[in-house]
């Protein structure tokens, strides 16, 4: 993580503290006490650290899913939809082979990749803007999951609760120790390091840098933009699909509607704030995961209304966006 990223993160944290403090004053709470409570809820105990890592895992994978196509200059906001479709496809694999974890994970990865392939094909065949198509497909994927868990895949024994049948123990991603943190965190960290090495040490990373900086060089250098668009979008989709099935097969234990908790959007913001670089994104994902987990705990620890917790979480993203815009403005000024 370079000095610029550290500076940007410091600005975001300072901005969040100022905005959240002002909000707490407005609702009649002590800002210092509440900010201390947020810090304690993020890293104040082993349980808090575990919950922070749990929230960070899908955010990190979705951030990686965003920054892979971004290395080519594409702006994909489809990690949320690819996450949903990965969970859908992985659950479908579970219904076919209830005790095969590898098949469930493979189904999730392929599902996310297939969902990302749709906007990729629209881009290379019909020159459809990938930002718009991925945004629209987010809604389609979420609604597909909702339809399935309310309809064909609804567990008849769930007493009206809209969810699929429970994953068998053999098809569930293992937890780490006594915590709720699952093996998806290790996968995300390993994949993040592998991507960093690919982007900085391999010919593929050099190709993406060249095409992003000057696409007109592609035919002269014998490079195929079409191939790279398809490849980067599919790889990104596979990562988001892994996030979806990891969340479903471990934390949830069954497919439910609205399980993503905005991980795709959070991942997009993390990737953008990190300048589409892997290592800063890994650090920022852990930070955002901690702050979001703290928001969940804040309601129980301080009796703050859930609506106020949502406002605090929204202020965090406002601070992150503001920090990114400020640094960008400063760099261009």
- Inertia-based shape: globular
In what range is the share of β-strand residues? under 5%
Q: Give the proportion of residues in helices.
A: over 70%
Secondary structural class = mainly alpha
Count the E strands.
0
Counted by DSSP, the helix tally is 13
- Biggest sheet architecture: none
Low-confidence spans: pLDDT under 50, at least 5 residues? Answer: none
Structure write-up:
By secondary structure, this protein is mainly α. Helix content is 76%, strand content 0%. The two termini are 23 Å apart.
Layout of strands and helices, then pairs:
Layout: H1 3-26, H2 31-43, H3 46-70, H4 79-96, H5 101-126, H6 130-150, H7 184-201, H8 203-213, H9 217-221, H10 225-252, H11 263-273, H12 278-302, H13 306-332
Helix pairs in contact: 1-2, 1-13, 2-3, 2-12, 3-7, 3-10, 3-11, 3-12, 4-5, 4-6, 4-10, 4-11, 5-6, 5-10, 7-8, 11-12, 11-13, 12-13
Quick structural summary:
With 333 residues, the chain is mainly alpha-helical.
Please supply descriptive tags for the structure shown above.
13 helices, mainly alpha, 76% helix
């Amino acid at each position: 993580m370079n000095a610029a990223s550290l500076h940007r993160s410091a600005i975001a944290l300072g901005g969040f503290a100022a905005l959240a403090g002002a909000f707490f004053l407005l609702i009649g709470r002590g800002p210092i006490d509440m900010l201390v409570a947020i810090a304690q809820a993020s890293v104040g105990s082993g349980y808090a650290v575990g919950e922070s890592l749990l929230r960070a895992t899908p955010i990190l994978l979705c951030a990686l899913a965003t920054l892979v196509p971004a290395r080519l200059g594409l702006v994909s906001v489809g990690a949320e939809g690819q996450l949903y479709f990965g969970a859908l496809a992985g659950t479908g694999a579970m219904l076919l082979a209830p005790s095969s974890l590898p098949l469930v994970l493979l189904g999730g990865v392929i599902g996310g990749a297939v969902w990302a392939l749709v906007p990729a094909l629209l881009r290379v065949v019909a020159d459809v803007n990938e930002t718009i198509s991925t945004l629209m497909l987010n809604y389609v994927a979420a609604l597909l999951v909702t339809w399935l868990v309310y309809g064909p895949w609804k567990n008849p024994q769930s007493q009206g609760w809209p969810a699929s049948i429970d994953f068998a123990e053999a098809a569930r991603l293992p937890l780490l120790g006594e915590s709720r943190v699952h093996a998806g965190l290790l996968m995300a960290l390993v994949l993040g390091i592998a991507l960093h090495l690919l982007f900085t040490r391999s010919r593929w990373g050099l190709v993406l840098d060249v095409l992003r900086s000057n696409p007109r060089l592609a035919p002269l250098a014998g490079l195929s933009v079409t191939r790279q668009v398809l490849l980067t979008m599919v790889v990104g989709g596979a990562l988001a699909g892994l996030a979806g099935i990891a969340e479903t097969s471990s934390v949830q234990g069954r497919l439910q509607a609205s399980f993503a908790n905005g991980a795709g959007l959070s991942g997009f913001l993390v990737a953008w704030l990190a300048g589409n670089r892997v290592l800063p994104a890994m650090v920022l994902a852990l930070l955002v995961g901690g702050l979001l987990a703290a928001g969940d705990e804040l309601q129980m620890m301080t009796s703050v209304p859930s609506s106020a917790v949502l406002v605090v979480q929204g202020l965090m993203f406002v601070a992150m966006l503001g920090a990114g815009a400020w640094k960008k403005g400063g760099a261009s000024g």
